[in-house]
Amino acid sequence: MLVFILNAGSSSLKYQLMNPTTKEVLAVGLCERIGIDGILKHEFGEGQKLTLEIPMPTHKEAIELVLKTLVESEGKVINSVDDIDAIGHRAVHGGEEFASSVMVTDKVIAKMKELIPLAPLHNPANIMGMEICQQLMPGKPNVAVFDTAFHQTMPDYAYMYALPHDMYTKHGIRKYGFHGTSHYFVSNEARAMLDKKQNTRIIVCHLGNGSSVSAVLNGKCIDTSMGLTPVQGLMMGTRAGDVGAGAISYMMTRENLTIDQALDVMNKKSGILGISGKSSDLREVLEGMQNGDDKCRLAVDMVAYNIKKYVGAYVAALDGVDALCFTGGIGENAALIREKVCAGLDSMGLVIDPVKNNRKSRDARDIATNGSASRIFVIPTNEEFVIANDTFKIVSELQK
After folding, report:
1. Distances, alpha carbon 344 to alpha carbons 269, 337, 357, in Å
2. Is residue 398's pLDDT more than 90?
3. Active-site residue flag, 264
4. Domain 3-146 carries which CATH code?
5. pLDDT digits (tens, 9 = 90+) for 274-316
6. Long-range contact list for 387-390, CB < 8 A, 24+ apart?
7. What does the alpha-carbon distance between residue 194 and residue 229 come to, in Å, rounded to a whole number?
8. Tens digit of pLDDT for each residue in 133-145?
9. 258 φ/ψ angles, rounded to the nearest 5 degrees
10. Strand pairing partners for 352?
11. 337 assigned ligand-binding residue
């Protein structure tokens, strides 16, 4: 089965064409600047790349261009759109309605539209991608795979905020969590690496421009760092993470900010960028630290300390830990962050091996010392495979 994987953003569109049974990726690409001028970056074959600058007024033209590129241009990898068996969509917010991936129907789209207030930037784009694919490829099954679904197993005492209870019953204000496909994939890979399916206590640190930590007990999420929105939790590329409500109110008063302006500061001007004053890219900040920039040093220390606090909290929540996992662009590549996070965690059974930690590899690996009571894994994530595999399973079941 060939699955066309789509991740529609407000002005961008990421895609892959994958066979989930073999994990073979035929093509991967990105449409940028939709509605402005339009750039398509398409990769296929043995590292071949194609870049096209073509106007894309809307997502419809972008998806049409992608399909044409897959079947007609020098980037061709299939003979016809008919070779695509199903479409798997990344869907950011499923609220409490969707605890698993589902076939896209009119009822599902209607429910996703009701959830737009919870994800006003993401859900409209996700829905648009689904509706356009239904138009351009009529009869092809579409599946929605939700970022929030994996976290729906959290107990109420973990996901509730200590606000008046009717804030939850009336408005759905609670912790939902995100990056669920990554946390699901990595935690299952860790269980396989442990060769242990029962009584597994796993902490996953998904670290990139957006970052989150999850506590996973026997394959089920019991807590995660992100909340109602992705701004809660860890300090990230441009997001502030956990900030007290009093500090936000005081900042708004002193700077004469509206709530929208304050949210803009917390989402786009804070985090690594806000502290370093240099960049939201940790690689540039690490370089700045090495060159003696103290604000860059502070940003690096804060990133590691924030992660370490959540790891400690989740060891307590899980009553121990079998494996601590690092994934995402920072988690997989920043050895110094892994070192700083694990420093002093010996009493929790987590002892990092400095040689293994600094050894570069693209493969999943154990970087704990041989004598460490718990394992420390670096596991490359594969969210697209989760989307493709869920799509394959749902469509195959319907075809029986």
Report:
1. 31, 13, 15
2. no
3. no
4. 3.30.420.40
5. 999 999 999 999 999 999 999 999 999 999 999 999 999 999 9
6. 387/3, 387/5, 387/88, 387/89, 387/90, 387/101, 387/143, 387/145, 387/181, 388/3, 388/5, 388/16, 388/18, 388/19, 388/20, 388/88, 389/20, 390/88, 390/101, 390/143, 390/145
7. 32
8. 999 999 999 999 9
9. -80, 170
10. 368
11. no
Domains 3-146 and 196-383 share a fold: yes
CB 90 within 8 A of CB 7: yes
CA distance 27 to 49: 10
Q: Which of 82, 85, 147, 366 is catalytic?
A: 147
Number of H helices, E strands in the chain: 15, 14
- In whole angstroms, give the CA distance from residue 85 to residue 391: 10
Report residue 327 as tokens. 């994934």
Residue 306 annotated in ligand binding: no
Q: Is 206 marked as a binding-site residue?
A: yes
The domain segmentation of the chain, as residue ranges, is: 3-146, 196-383
- Does the annotation place 208 within a ligand binding site? yes
Q: Say which amino acid occupies 375.
A: R
Residue range 196-383, CATH number: 3.30.420.40
Known binding residue 93? Answer is no
Token readout for 132 is 């356009």
Which residues, other chains included, contact 166 with Cβ-Cβ below 8 Å and sequence gap of 6+?
none
Measured between alpha carbons, how far is 248 from 101 in angstroms, rounded to an integer?
36
